[in-house]
Amino acid sequence: MLQFILKRLGLAILVALTVSFISFSLLFLAGDPAAALAGETASGEDIEAIRVLYGFDRPMLVQYGEWLWSAVRGNFGESYYFKLPVSSLIAERLSVTMMLGVCGITFALLMAVPLGVLAAMRPNSIIDRIALFLSVAGQALPSFWFGLILIVVFAIQLRWLPVSGAATWAHFVMPTIVLGYYAMPAIMRLTRAGMLEVLSSDYIRTARAKGASELRVMFRHALRNAIIPVVSLAAVQMGFMLGGSIVVESIFALHGAGYLAWESIARNDLPTVQALILIFSMFYIVFNFLADVLNAWLDPRMRSS
Amino acid sequence: MTDTFLDVKGLTIDIPVGGGTLHAVRGIDFELKRGEVLCIVGESGSGKSLTSLALMGLLGRRIKVRAERMDFDGTALLDASPRQMRSLRGARMSMIFQEPMTSLNPAYTIGDQLMEAMLLHRDVSRAEARARAVDLLEKVGITAAASRLGQYPHQLSGGLRQRVMIAMALMCGPELIIADEPTTALDVTIQAQILRLLVDLVREMGMAMILITHDLGVVARVADKVAVMYAGELVETGLAADVFRAPMHPYTRGLLRCIPQPGKSRRGEPLGTIRGIVPSLVGEVSGCVFRTRCDEAVAACRGTIPQHWPGDGHAFRCVHASGARIAEQEGA
Fold this sequence. Notes:
Chain A has 305 residues and is mainly α. Chain A has helices at residues 2-29, 33-38, 44-53, 60-72, 86-121, 126-140, 143-157, 173-199, 202-209, 214-244, 246-251, 257-266, 270-298, 300-304. Chain B is built from eleven helices and 13 strands.
């Protein structure tokens, strides 16, 4: 197991380095950064001065090394737009996004896994139909529309929940539902399909032949095997939620990292974009690594391969 | 020790299929005394496995099981609640399946899976269950038993896994073992070994066993009683000695002609075969189901087939009352 973890960790670090290099080179893909910084009216001398000031005149690999070294220590430079350190800018926004992401994926899993299991226990039953309906609806409803409907019903008419902001836990209820509901269908369908496959396998019959109760067969024997692909999917969706919750964040005016990314791209604020890309990618890498470890714990066959 | 504790009469299994009903098993009777070995013989699709799964109560709810009587030591299995059935399964009756490669849960250790049935049914500590597991693994001939408990199924060969399955079935000391072609999926070289082991253990522990097989060589070696199944019916039952000495039903005799017999078969003589294939059992089934493949079929085979008892406990269903040998002469 330890060997497996070390191997995966090594791979994760390699991927992280590759991604960091790509996100660093974005600066140069977007044209001459010094010219962009100096603005349209700047003279050639000004541009040269800025080039030297920001160190753009040095070899790219040296710049990359320097950038990476400060990034590792949490220093991502200064935002062109806010004139603030990127790290503090992101740290402030990231807590909102993290909170939303964790709540969203938890909500999605709590909805999807039990529904998937129930649907698989009784295929084509009324429960299965309801689960199918919910998942088709989840896939079909655009997040912005669903979010607005929730606001109209629960915030404006019933006045149960606040419309927007991030001050209390109540502010997170609707965003969590919208974000989680979007991730739910895929997880549910995968759980259902996995359970159906596992339930028809020989070892489930063995478990029943031992006199195990239906509950024990479902959760101890079947779900543990069926959940393995779901773990990988949930990791990807978690990464997506942290980076891609822009729509949900803007509807509910949650100033999170997704919203910041959108703003920074619009403003050509390269250091911020760079840092966000790096951080979002790191999340993906970390979640995938954790999913691999969790899967290896669930499935002994993965450990030995 | 000689009382009948498994009594099955008129067992019928219907499977709904698209546009009809598959009459997979039609009114079979058999009984078993404590310590006896009954072999159910027949080709694929004859309903052997369905019969054993019906006894264990492991058929899905879509499959309809009926019987005049299906009693296990006084318990009517068909009337038992799911809870009652669970308390029997794994404790008093256990099953060994055909496929050792897929019959163990890949996510749990051998030890966990061995101990599970005992922890479910008996009031024992984990340490006691563990001791029993080690004990049984040694009994089924697995070396370094204690260290195997921490291994996972994928780390064991097919033969070892089937030994584990056998040990698992024995954990609670059941009165009845149902073994559904336990050696079919194994290498020929270890088939005999595993079978011998199973039979020795069953005899040693005084358990009754239903062994499902299509290998008549196996039957001859281990069976007290034989039940020959064909297309969902028991065509002939009896003590193994009687059935092998004087097979009455044309199908039984056909099967016996398919295996070489030392001393009887001549060198170079082709082995017997049974022509044709098993008929479809979807829809109404009447008369003798074997008539389409039987060399001794007559017009009466389409009607009701009588049962005959040529000896104590020996029974067969055929229109040729005094055995097919006479019919052979008539037909010639």
